[in-house]
Amino acid sequence: MAYLKHLSDKYFDINIVDVEIKQTRDGSGIRRFTLIRVKWRATVEGAWIMVVVKWGIKKCRREGEKEKKEILFSVRIKDLYILNYNLEVLRVIIISNVFICVHMCSCDCRVEECPEGFIPRVSKTFVRHRSEGLFMRGIRSPRVENCASLFTVNEMEFGMILILFVASIPTNLAEDISYGTIVVDGTTSIAQIDDNFVCATIDWWPHDKCDYKQCPWHYTSAITLDLSHPILTKAIQAFNRLRIRIGGSLQDQVLYNVGNLKSPCHPFRKMKHGLFGFSKGCLQMKRWDELNHFFNATSVMLTFGLNALYGRHKIKGSLWGGEWDSSNAQDFIKYSISKGYQIDSWEYGNELSGNGVGAHVHADRYGKDLIHLKKIIKELYKGSQFEPSLVAPGGFFNQQWFTKLLQVSGSNVLDAISHHIYNLGAGSDPKLVSKILDPNHLNKVANTFINLARTVQTHGPWSSAWVGESGGAYNSGGPHVSDTFVNSFWYLDQLGMASKYHTKVYCRQTLIGGNYGLLNATTYVPNPDYYSALLWHRLMGKVVLAVDSDASPLLRSYAHCSKGRIGVTLLVINLSDQTKFITDVQNSMNNNIKLATEQQNISRKSFSRSLKNTASGAEIKASSDEYSYREEYHLTPKNGYLQTRTMVLNGFPLELTSTGNIPRLDPIRVNVKSPISITPLSIAFIVFPDFVAPACR
């Protein structure tokens, strides 16, 4: 029998229709309450619910997967137990101001007693009252601590104090253990990424850009961002050369106040019939100077998105036509050169490919524009030691459109072909978390990477693929999701997958701004994904290695040559809410690899013994009398709450120091012969300094 050890925080809605309670007194005069009947409306998705009274099975029933059900039962409050058939999700907990014991087992299990140390103590929460009954919205489930005995309900003022809530438990309920092998092929490289693969964006959205009745951008645009904020400076400097892309939806409405500008240059303002609901905006050269001084001080590698609609007009629907007027862009580039500003790459346009988002331009016209812009760049940078790259189109992948673009622009014009990814859907989607933790959903975007890589190889081998913008969920990201720990499952999986499919650069939307910022939009304090990005940037090198595994699809793994040192770094992502994976990492150069069901079924003892005999399977170079070691970085959510804004590294919360510095990201050193354990719903970077990998030389 498995026992619940931890209950994580979660938010729920439940509408309680009716409650009937009977009050009695025992011989000692202590009041006791019996829950006669509870009636509420909620969706219970495919869970077996078992109610145990006085250590016996009261009833066991299966609720509908999608339709709403009414659940009626009678049970004494202090003896209430809720069980789940498939050991995956605890669906219903009914509590009052009492301690309850929660077991996880199948319907034919025999419940005898709660052993000491495994009875969770549930502290009380709160309710809000509405005339038709108790209505709970946004209730945060309480923390759970171990205690040794049940609490007897004494004098409780019932009225509306009875608390009922639905809890969906995404973390360790009944922890299973699965054994497996991960094989890393260090003999050949399957892809290579740029040294500055990790990239973050700064957008143009004003503070009054709102989605779903929220306005999460605040003052984070390229025009209004507080460049003097010390946390911003330290957060960027921690990367020791972070690539930043300035661009976004309003990019093609930005005017540069330099040279012979043909129209007034005013700040963005809301405009009913404007593109994306805003007027044209203005970048003053004073602000451009400030940005470049800041980028120079923080060693930023800059990609700047140019306005591709200047001089054009709307023809029909979202289609724009006419010649691109390059004069404003040319004057802007001239000014930047005259000031000595180092621009790594110029990007042309934003989301104008295919059918576009707010606007689109035909591929043949776009390709001719790129030829023209490339000539401008070459002429203006003639005699310079460095010529910036040309990147385009910064839109959603449409194979026919992208192919045409490469064919029209021709050889050696486009240095990088960029596309955008928002594969989690709308930020308002209530299923964001379930999508993030679903390997099948995560795998869907692989086709985009594969098809783009083929398109580049066939029609533009002189170019390389970039993800120019990716925020997971569009419309500013998902509140309480995109800025929390759970988003790192999506983000790091994206970095691993994109690398594997020949993506050179991956730009995260955003560095700051919206719900998906690496930094909080008002405090500038790093969100969990900031630390995920920083660890990747520091640990994962350019060379991508092939990985094979016999583990569950819920355990995802990616391998690179280590960055700045010899060896191999493995990224492992455990999407399971119950299974701890104990893995044997082996080198494909080892002829004794076992990848089969035999490995999955071995006992814990034999597995540990095999690890000791094979040194975790990795062919290593032993050094004198010292044991070989690996370095582990285990990432977990604070207090087990997936939607926390605090990430924990090897048991220590990642929080700014008292002086506002980025905390140290130190690994734990582990004997390479010991098993690798990946706990449920956690992420780990594992560095093997002595892993023999010819591809990494």
TrEMBL record:
InterPro entries: GH, Glyco_hydro_79. Its main location: membrane. GO terms for cellular component: extracellular region; lysosomal membrane; plant-type cell wall. The keyword Iron does not apply. It comes from the Eukaryota. It is a peripheral membrane protein. Keywords: Glycoprotein, Hydrolase, Lysosome, Membrane, Secreted, Signal. It is found in: Lysosome membrane; Secreted. Signal peptide: none annotated. GO terms for molecular function: beta-glucuronidase activity. Belongs to the glycosyl hydrolase 79 family. Endoglycosidase which is a cell surface and extracellular matrix-degrading enzyme. Cleaves heparan sulfate proteoglycans (HSPGs) into heparan sulfate side chains and core proteoglycans. This is Heparanase-like protein 1.
